[in-house]
Write a structure and sequence with these properties.
The complex is a heterodimer of chains A (110) and B (111). Chain A has 110 residues and is an all-beta fold. Chain A is 0% helix and 51% strand. In chain A, strands 2, 4, 5, 6, 9, 10 and 11 form a seven-stranded mixed beta sheet that branches. Chain B is an all-beta fold and 111 residues long. The chains are: A mainly beta (110), B mainly beta (111).
Chain lengths: 110, 111
């Protein structure tokens, strides 16, 4: 099993550009999550999903969108990127409360 | 909103010394989890505590969950250089599947 995979690993965006961060899990987990981690800080929940077709906002959803059309995939969409969205983005999945994290995407917006 | 506070933010210890990080929640938690993140890595699940007053051990690591299920601690005995990283507590909110992460404690160990 690959676990949780994320692409890309690194990305530089210009202000106003858009992009999609991909996340796939092969553990058949119902729960999936997107977090952002700013330097020296903890993890802030952006969006989460409790199953295919169901998504909900976390603590910091502004500027992001998600969809969950399958159990495996949970892409995160950034529209009109801003410098404040420079961060490391982690996707995670779980069957209950324990969460398994992907390797992260380091995003810089300049 | 719900908050989980973690102290200290940083800790530098000499190899062989003990280390403790503390976690406090503004609300009663369903359970609490601990994660470790190595520099440049991703968080990795260590343990989950569910019962009031629960104590669990993993080799040199001891985890406690408070009686009121609002606080927790992680204690490492005789630290080693392999213990370096950031330790996060994460409080689970009942029936949501969501975790509220503390800010983390970054541990540096001098050999």
């Amino acid at each position: 099993n690959a676990g949780v995979t994320q692409t890309p690993k690194f990305r530089i965006l210009k202000i106003g550009q858009s992009m999609t961060l991909q996340c796939t899990q092969d553990m058949n987990h119902n729960y999936m999550y997107w977090y952002r981690q700013d330097p020296g800080m903890g993890l802030k929940l952006i969006y989460y999903s409790v199953g295919a077709g169901i998504t909900d906002k976390g603590e910091v959803p502004n500027g992001y969108n998600v969809s969950r059309s399958t159990t495996e995939d949970f892409p995160l969409r950034l529209e009109l990127a801003a410098p404040s969205q420079t961060s490391v983005y982690f996707c995670a999945s779980g069957a209950g409360y324990e969460q398994y994290f992907g390797p992260g995407t380091r995003l810089t917006v300049t | 909103g719900q908050q989980v506070m973690q102290i200290p933010q940083y800790q530098h210890v000499q190899e062989g010394e003990d280390f403790t990080t503390y976690c406090n929640s503004s609300t009663t938690l369903s359970n609490i989890q601990w994660y470790k993140q190595r520099p440049g890595g991703h968080p990795v699940f260590l343990i989950q505590l569910v019962k009031s007053g629960e104590v669990k051990k993993q080799k040199r690591l001891t985890f406690q969950f408070g009686e009121a299920k609002k606080n927790s601690s992680l204690h490492i005995t005789a630290t080693q250089t392999t213990d370096v990283g950031t330790y996060f507590c994460a409080g689970a909110l009942r029936n949501t599947g969501k975790l509220i992460f503390g800010q983390g404690t970054t541990l540096q160990v001098k050999p």
